[in-house]
Amino acid sequence: MEQSKIPQATAKRLPLYYRFLNNLNHQGKARVSSKELSEAVKVDSATIRRDFSYFGALGKKGYGYNVEYLLGFFRKTLDQDEVTEVALIGVGNLGTAFLNYNFTKNNNTKIVMAFDSDPSKSEGNVGGVPIYHIAELEDRIGDVKVAILTIPASEADGITTRLVDCGIEGILNFTPARISVPEHIRVHHIDLAVELQALVYFLKHYPLDEGL
Amino acid sequence: MEQSKIPQATAKRLPLYYRFLNNLNHQGKARVSSKELSEAVKVDSATIRRDFSYFGALGKKGYGYNVEYLLGFFRKTLDQDEVTEVALIGVGNLGTAFLNYNFTKNNNTKIVMAFDSDPSKSEGNVGGVPIYHIAELEDRIGDVKVAILTIPASEADGITTRLVDCGIEGILNFTPARISVPEHIRVHHIDLAVELQALVYFLKHYPLDEGL
DNA sequence: CATAAGTCGTGATTAATTTCACAATAGTAT
DNA sequence: ATACTATTGTGAAATTAATCACGACTTATG
């Protein structure tokens, strides 16, 4: 918890850096410059250097960064060694997408259980993840602290309340509803319809160049 | 294209405001204050007032905002009357989720066609949207200017090149790959794995309170 | 060894966004 | 009418993030 001074904008880019460093490593590249990385992840090179610098001097002047070293560093920083268990609520199309995906490669998160209100889905198993009926939420969730919400908006509030009572700490909400939670619980909203509309708005109103 | 001075951060919130105003309207509410709206969309009320103020004085002091008026205003501003056609590339789980969803309510975007490389999927039809084989991309896409990419990362570059050649203007990229496009094309990346990892990182390193 | 080329780390600057805080005004109640 | 209350719109301040630009250092080359 020491490095709480890292800007949120930087923190959000860390997983991205991590994945690309992993790619480079698999490709057998031993070193990389902020300029090269910049082209790969589409983030300004000065921003990358600044981001890295919050963690200390990780590179060498005139050389760049050693891929393996950097990777090892981020592995620790991003807690890649310790897997965070995640519960998925709602096994519709979107939920199924997550289950099949299940963040297989270089990832520190794992969906360990899923819930659905449809009895024909529960008792099943998708991508090796057991699916339970939503009624079993409280019994099954154990000490899982992170949930992905891929349910209809109308159910968001009810499920959220139950998750909060189960001691959940973070929710990734794909529901269009903006859910209310106690202050100490973190919610990230990803609103697919809004994202698409925003893209369309930018296309019409913000003439060429300038990525998001 | 007149109001190019609207901050990007504001522009990204507009679709969200629009949807909640619609909800309020359906509920029969005639007026709303920035404070109420703030609670609903989880955006600071001063930010909401500031956002609205870029479009002029839309509210009344001591009263708030007239829901219907505001809604009418945003409908025009967000081009809600004119539907933007969208093509979906990749009818896997995630792609299917989009097709079934298809942004039915209060939306100015519509997926009008989908493509997949699996012949057993193409020639089909999901949620009323025709699915073509990816080989037909150039023949079928017509003047659709926006594409959603829900394909494996390995195919991202190839498909992107073809889309660019077809004259695409905006891409909503769900692929983990950071695609390269000419300057005048807008790409928004939504990286599900990164979002989840970022949430986990925040949980571990940023103690309670403060939503993203 | 000396020179050239490349690249980091960061102070300083600029830009973007959020938040504070309050005067002005509209509505409401008596 | 008058007083009271609610709420906007916005100047100013604060915060956060991105970018510039350059000194210092590393490696490569002849």
From TrEMBL, chains A, B:
It is found in: Cytoplasm. Its main location: cytoplasm. InterPro entries: CoA-bd, NAD(P)-bd_dom_sf, Rex_bacilli-type, Rex_DNA-bd_C_dom, Tscrpt_rep_Rex, WH-like_DNA-bd_sf, WH_DNA-bd_sf. Signal peptide: none annotated. The keyword Transcription regulation applies. Residues 79-178 form the CoA-binding domain. Belongs to the transcriptional regulatory Rex family. This is Redox-sensing transcriptional repressor Rex. It comes from Virgibacillus alimentarius. The gene is rex.
